[in-house]
Specification:
652 residues; alpha/beta; eight-stranded parallel barrel; 14 helices; 31 strands; globular
Length: 652
């Protein structure tokens, strides 16, 4: 149980809520329920009818809770960890605990108390990965492995670590209705999804990740609660009366009663960090977290988290506003944010798609601007929004997370289909190279590392027929706007989920093995050569030569060039592309010569020569020094759609 002498706890409204097992076999129950005059805690016989709804379970013990003021109630009762319980409001409604740590029977079932001290940890020597070489891997637990559990991910960790993956970013894992959901319909923010393996399964995954040198980030949804199983309105004003998000009522962070709501979510972030050793968070759609308080709730949370070297706090924001990352008084204090502009500029340039928000990213200029400055829309006119959008980017490269695939974009603008197409398509390699070698913090979407062609659709498993109809209709309308040519799959159908599951047979194909080799090569390039890392001192120049993108990067003595073939068509040409071959010859004549001159200028006084080698278009630069009497060949990448050249004395 959290200590009540927590330095922030100065007022009853700042007490943590939930069920807290104690060493003597009893438990302390605390709940915020200002809309009830009386609250009883009931221990339930869920073993007699585990499939039944909450109201049909037998009560084996009941205790009246004592009011503490401000809508808080508290009781201490003989109930060891693992007890199933609920709250009875005014002798009528029986409800699960909004701060439940475990919902083993789903969102309509009883809560189960959980003792975090029962978890076993072996990560005392764990050191998080460096941010400048970090590669994030986004995972949806329910579609990643055949088991659709945390344990299913554990089995793949050795492979991911060998590829150079530094962090898993899990889609939301809070308890959601049914067994098939993206996770953004969660209604118990503290409870680990039971179908994934519950709290013990999550702890085992985190511990195993740390053992393999991989951090774990959680996706937290602090802008709304899901539409099914949310009974918080019976307890108190959790929702904001003034604002409504695209997914439901906004949360109450600044109206009457907001003190306890703020504490609820503030403590939630600390709970994951403290009890499950979580290394970072991705906060969903922060523009929909409405708070007019002097200190925004997200800033308050960020200020409470460890230093970014140990814990990374990432915002999902399309605002293109520097206040998201700013540590000034008015800033939100995030360590990093998703950079949608990178995805939009890259996909618009590659496909020519002009629908919806991609209309703002047509032509050659947006991608160059993103690569050099961070954002494409920086006080620029947005055709999609019908107004000017953003401001000049003040973010460092290590504060921008970039991607060419993610759950939203595959299901949205792709209509469930991945950018890159089927296995073997050269676009897959191109998107991989552009993402990993952009000089920002790269994120891959599950399966992208082996060229997966499986899609990712929106799917739900709601029980309410009327709610299902609304969701199905809403998704059909959204897909019509974003990707009208894609086949429509009802989110309520089992097919939407089954077709989103990774096909692990593709891992062992020739292309799957080749793509993994490319990932290893590219992540090694980033580790060995400072010019490709996410570093504030890195200098970047980008230009077009016809359909070729030339990206030059400099960090100290470390110099690199990325050449990518990006014709504005839906399919790239073959590996014998004439433009790329011509680029190789041009680089051989000019760019490489410029490198060598620069490298000689940066070489130490004990360097006797710098050698140039060319073998079928794959260039290598070697150094020979009298002092160490050894030759070090720099790593290069040579693929059908992209070429990476490197010249550097050593990794900085």
């Amino acid at each position: 149980m959290p200590s009540e002498s927590h330095p922030r706890t100065r007022h009853p409204t700042q007490l943590p809520v939930g069920a807290f097992p104690l060493p003597d076999g009893s438990s302390l129950f605390r709940v915020w329920a200002p809309r009830a005059r009386r609250v009883d805690v009931e221990l339930l016989r869920s073993d007699a009818a585990p499939g039944s709804d909450l109201e049909h379970l037998r009560c084996r013990k009941r205790e009246r809770m004592q009011p503490l003021g401000f809508g808080l109630f508290e009781a201490r009762i003989a109930a060891p960890a693992g007890s199933d319980y609920a709250f009875r409001l005014d002798g009528k409604r029986r409800r699960a605990d909004p701060a439940s740590r475990w919902q083993p029977f789903g969102v309509h079932g009883p809560s189960r108390s959980f003792d975090p001290s029962s978890l076993t940890w072996n990560d005392q020597a764990w050191v998080p990965p460096r941010r400048d070489t970090l590669v994030i891997y986004q995972v949806h637990v329910g579609t990643y492995s055949p088991a659709a559990t945390f344990a299913g991910i554990v089995a793949d960790l050795p492979r991911l670590a060998e590829l150079g993956i530094g962090a898993l970013q899990l889609l939301p894992i809070a308890e959601f209705p049914g067994t098939r959901n993206w996770g953004y319909d969660g209604v118990f923010p503290y409870a680990v999804e039971s179908s994934y393996g519950g709290p013990f399964g999550l702890a085992a995954l985190v511990d195993a990740c740390h053992d393999h040198g991989i951090a774990v980030y959680l996706d937290l949804v602090f802008n709304h609660l899901g539409p099914e199983g949310d009974y918080t309105a019976d307890f108190g004003p959790y929702s904001n009366s003034r604002f409504h998000t695209p997914w439901g009522n906004a949360l109450n962070f600044d109206e009457a009663g907001s003190a306890c709501v703020r504490q609820f979510f503030y403590e939630n972030a600390l709970y994951w960090r403290r009890e499950f050793h979580i290394d970072g968070f991705r906060f969903d759609a922060i523009a929909q977290v409405f708070d007019s308080s002097p200190t925004h709730i997200l800033r308050e949370i960020n200020d409470s988290l460890p230093d970014a070297a140990k814990h990374l706090s990432i915002a999902e924001s399309e605002l293109n506003s520097n206040h998201v990352l700013s540590s000034d008084r008015a800033g939100l204090g995030f360590d990093a944010q998703w950079n949608d502009d990178f995805h939009h500029a890259l996909i618009a340039r590659l496909t020519g798609n002009q629908r919806a928000f991609l209309a703002d990213f047509q032509g050659d200029e947006p991608l160059l601007k993103v690569l050099e400055e961070g954002w494409a829309l920086a006080s620029d006119w947005s055709q999609f929004r019908g107004r000017f959008h953003g401001e000049p980017c003040g973010a460092r490269p290590d504060q921008l997370v970039v991607f060419s695939q993610n759950h939203d974009q595959v299901a949205g603008i792709g209509g469930g289909r991945r950018a890159g197409g089927a296995q073997g398509a050269p676009e897959q390699e191109l998107l991989l190279v552009m993402t990993l070698m952009s000089g920002f913090v790269p994120m891959l979407f599950q399966g992208q590392d082996f060229g997966a062609s499986t899609g990712f659709h929106y799917f739900i498993d709601h029980r309410d027929p009327a709610l299902k109809r609304r969701v199905v209709a809403g998704r059909r309308h959204e897909q019509k706007q974003l990707s009208p040519g894609a086949p429509y799959l009802s989110p309520a159908s089992i097919s939407a989920w089954s077709q989103s599951r990774l096909d692990w047979d593709q891992l062992g194909t020739g292309w799957g093995q080749l793509m993994q080799t490319k990932v290893r090569q590219l992540t090694e390039l980033r580790r060995r050569h400072a010019c490709f890392r996410a570093n504030a001192k890195r200098q970047v120049q980008a230009r077009w030569e016809g359909s070729l993108l030339i990206l030059s990067m400099l960090q100290g003595a470390s110099r690199g060039v990325l050449v990518a073939h990006l014709p504005q068509v839906k399919r790239l040409e073959s590996s014998k592309n004439r433009d790329l071959a011509r680029a190789r010859r041009a680089l051989n004549r000019s760019t490489l010569q410029q490198w060598l001159s620069s490298l000689r200028a940066h070489a130490s006084t004990d360097s006797t020569c710098v050698e140039e080698r060319s073998n079928g278009g794959a260039f290598r630069v070697a150094y020979r020094t009298e002092r160490v009497r050894e030759r070090t060949r720099d790593f290069v990448f040579d693929g059908p759609s992209a070429l990476v050249l490197v010249g550097t004395r050593r990794a900085n």
